[in-house]
Amino acid sequence: MSPRRSYDQYCSAARALDLVGDRWTLLIVRELLAGPRRYTDLHADLPGVSTDVLASRLKDMERDGISTRRRLPPPGAAYVYELTSRGRELLPVLQALGAWGQAELGELRPTDAVRAHWFALPLLRSLEGAGLVEVRLQEGNFHLHLGADDGPVYGDGPAPGEPDVRLVLDHGTCEAVARGELSVTDAVRDGRIQVTGDGTLAKALLDF
After folding, report:
1. Is the pTM of this model over 0.85?
2. I want to staple 143 with a disulfide (CB 3.0 to 4.6 A). Which of 152, 159, 175, 192 is the partner?
3. What span, in angstroms and rounded, lies between the C-alpha atoms of 163 and 42?
4. HSE-up of residue 195 (Cα within 13 Å, Cβ side)
5. Secondary structure of the chain as H, E, C letters
6. Crossing angle between the packed helical segments 25-32 and 51-63, to the nearest 10 degrees
7. What is the structure's pLDDT at 2?
C-alpha cells in the first residue's frame, strides 16, 4: 500500500484532496455509488485505468475509510467493494463536480467511452422527489433510487422491483440533459422522454 501523500496544508479542501484528489479515485466512487461491485466489474466500467492503479486506489480508499471489501456468501464467494457511509457522503461532491463540468461535455468524441449508467448522476440532479426510477436508453437500462438516504443511488439493468416511473429516451436527449441544455420536465413536455407508471413521480412529470 502506497504511503498517503499530503498537501500539508491546514485547509479542509486540501485535507479532502489528500484522500480523494488522486486520479481515478472519484470515478471509482461514482461506480461504487451503484452498490457493491467486483473488481472485474469496476475495471470494465473504468476504461483506461490500469489494473495496478485500480488495485492501489482501492487499497488507499479502504485504508482511509472511504470503502470496504467483503466476501460474498456462497454461491457467489467473490470479493466486492462498497462505499462506507463516509464514502457515500461524496455523492453531493460528485453532483457538484458534474454540474460544474456540464459546460465541458460538448459533443461526444470518437474516443469517448460511454456507459449507460454514467447518465445516472445528471438525471438524479434533474429529478425531484423520492422513489424508484427505471431509465431505458439505446445503450442499456439502469435505475435510480431517488431520495435514498443509504445504500445504492443507482444500479445497472432494470429496476429491482416495480418502479414508480419508467423513462424512455434517446441518446441525444440524454446528452442534452447531461450538458444542462434540457431539463427532464421540458423533455417530457416536448415528447422527447416517454413517461409511464402509476407512481407519484410519474404523475408529477406528466402533470407538469
Report:
1. yes
2. 159
3. 26
4. 23
5. CCCCCCCCCCCHHHHHHHHHCCCCHHHHHHHHCCCCEEHHHHHHCCCCCCHHHHHHHHHHHHHCCCEEEEECCCCCCCEEEEECHHHHCCHHHHHHHHHHHHHHHCCCCCCCCCCHHHHHHHHHHHCCCCEEEEEEECCEEEEEEECCCCCCCEEECCCCCCCCEEEEECHHHHHHHHCCCCCHHHHHHCCCEEEECCCHHHHHHHCC
6. 80
7. 62
Select from 69, 67, 124, 117 the least CA-distant residue to 94.
124
Evaluate if residue 177 carries a pLDDT over 90.
yes
* Alpha-carbon gap, residue 164 to 174, rounded angstroms: 20
In 3D space, the residue among 171, 165, 163 whose CA is nearest the CA of residue 119 turns out to be 171
Mind listing the pLDDT tens digit for each residue in 14-43? 999 999 999 999 999 999 999 999 999 999
Return the amino acid letter for 196: T
Average pLDDT, the chain: 93
Residue 184 has φ and ψ, to the nearest 5°, of: -60, -45
Question: Could you read off the pLDDT of 161-171 as tens digits, one per residue?
Answer: 999 999 999 98
